Amino acid sequence: MTRTRLTPVEAVPENGSFLFTVSERDGTEEEVILVRCTPDTPPGGVEEPTVRAWRNACQHETDQRLDRGFGAAVRDGEVVCPKHGSMFDSCTGYCDTGKAAESYLSAVDVEVDDGAVYLTDPEVEYSHDGGLDDDDDDDDGPSSTSHLSF
Ligand code: FES
Predict the structure, then answer these.
(1) Which atom of ligand 1 is found nearest the CA of 61?
(2) Whole-angstrom Cα distance, residue 69 to residue 79?
(3) Is the pLDDT of residue 93 over 60?
(4) Which atom of ligand 1 is nearest to the CA of 59?
(5) Alpha carbon 45 to chain centroid distance?
(6) Which residues of 32-66 are buried (b: 16+ CB within 10 A; e: fewer)?
(7) Which residue, judged by its Cα, is nearest atom 4 of ligand 1?
(8) Lateral strand order in the sheet of 116-119
């Protein structure tokens, strides 16, 4: 399985999101957000925060971005839509109230391994950090070498 290293887990804010862009199979580019997911701690268990990836689109109006380039609003484990305030569970993507009620965010497969987040979804390919407008092909700086597929 090919996977692409995206970022250290610490770079995913606890009350925000890490934005990147992928290419879908049909060649279109889509924004994706990484958010922290902290499942309920089992009695006596150890809390193990992990990370989920969701396409950056509200399910009420899919052209509405959750992260508008400066981090999504995440409160008490829920991603808040900036337009009408629907709240999506960071771990499951489910919205139970508001205009987007009974919908799920569109998931992208990622995994956490040894403190880093990897893109593992066979349906998409990593394109670049940031949103659709942040592609900077002229940037040959070190960030372009930090996303190795193997
Ligand atoms: S666009 Fe997100 S709740 Fe309406």
Answers:
(1) 1
(2) 15
(3) yes
(4) 2
(5) 26
(6) bbbbbbeeeeeeeeeeeeebbbbbbbbbbeeebbb
(7) 84
(8) 4-8, 116-119, 110-113
Stretch 82-91: mean pLDDT: 97
C-alpha span between 54 and 138 (Å, rounded) = 28
CA separation for the pair 8, 40 (Å, rounded): 23
What percent of the chain has pLDDT above 70? Answer: 83
Find, among 98, 109, 113, the residue nearest to 58 by Cα. Answer: 98
Please give the distance, rounded to the nearest whole angstrom, from the Cα atom of residue 138 to the centre of ligand 1. Answer: 35
CA 96 – ligand 1 centroid, Å: 13
- Where does 4-135 sit in CATH, by number? 2.102.10.10
Domain ranges of the chain: 4-135
In the numeric block, the tokens 């497969």 are attached to 109
